[in-house]
Amino acid sequence: MKLEIKNLSKKFEKKEVLNNINLEVESGEVVSLVGRNGSGKTTLLKLITGIYQLDIGEITIDGVNIEQNNLKSNIIYIPDKFDYFKYTKIKNIIKYYELAYENFDKDYFEKELVKNKISLNKKITELSKGQTVIFGVILGLACRTNFLLLDEPLDGIDIINIKLIINYIIEAQDSGVGILVSSHQLDYLENISDKIIYIDTTGKYGKEVDKMEYSKYQLVYEDKIPDEFANLDSVRIVSNIGRVYVVLVRGSFEETRDLIQESAPLQCDELPVLLEDIFIINDKGGAEND
After folding, report:
1. Which UniProt keywords apply (predicted)?
2. CA-based nearest residue to 268, from 202, 232, 218
């Protein structure tokens, strides 16, 4: 199956939050959303699930609008906080999900809670941050939907719980679930994602991040980096200490090599390109839309 977002735009009052977002999530695929707080990641997830209404655009599953034929039941959204249910015991929360999702796997849900030492009699407010996230992910998997949307599941939890959540995401992927996940934990997303979509905080566009478009170098100059090189559209300075510059250059190997040579550095060392580098150079400021 394929979940597709086409030309999606959203405004709150006169403030544009998302503009012409396009992306696809297929069965068994992990698609990660990256962007600063305020870039609209949470808004996008809420639009997909119908919590917010679209202004412009269409959301489809296998080409059919999700407003038809109860297609939304193929999607489960797990928020970063369970504010609506925070004073409710877990055993009562699952009653709602059993009604909403006909394939809800109660046995799996309870088994995984026991494994993680989370009591059905606990309220959300009585859980730690890590337990709340684990509960949410288990809940999402237990709904047995075709698509799972996770909002910041790796935020604010320790490394042990991050690895646990990653394993649950991989479990879902292996079972054919399409997963759309937002997070600031770029290193972990990079390792599990089939596609990474960057949402800009100013242009509000969504584009797929491809590290192969870039090369990364540490350059040492006699004085400073030449302006004619630094100001090229294809060149981004990642960091600078004195006469030492770390730069990303977009283009083919031949183009990149020629540009570097023309800038006449005293020393040139190639470095591995990190997802975080691309995130930083594309990020142009904050907003208040998430």
Report:
1. ATP-binding, Nucleotide-binding
2. 218
Beta-carbon contacts of residue 49 (< 8 Å; ≥ 6 apart): 72, 75, 77, 149
List the one residue out of 32, 9, 36, 48 whose CA is nearest residue 197: 32
Q: How many whole angstroms separate alpha carbon 56 and alpha carbon 102?
A: 31
Which one has a higher pLDDT value, 210 or 44?
A: 44
Angle of helix 106-115 relative to helix 90-100, nearest 10 degrees, comes to 150
Predicted TM-score (pTM) above 0.85: no
- Which tops the pLDDT comparison, 284 or 182? 182
What is the Cα–Cα distance from 157 to 102, expressed in whole angstroms? 31
Determine whether 270 is exposed, middle or buried from the number of CB atoms within 10 Å of its CB (0-12, 13-18, 19+): exposed
Distances (CA, A) of 110 to 83, 91, 94, 253: 22, 9, 10, 53
Rounded Cα distance, 63 and 77, in Å: 20
Is the pLDDT higher at 252 or at 63?
63
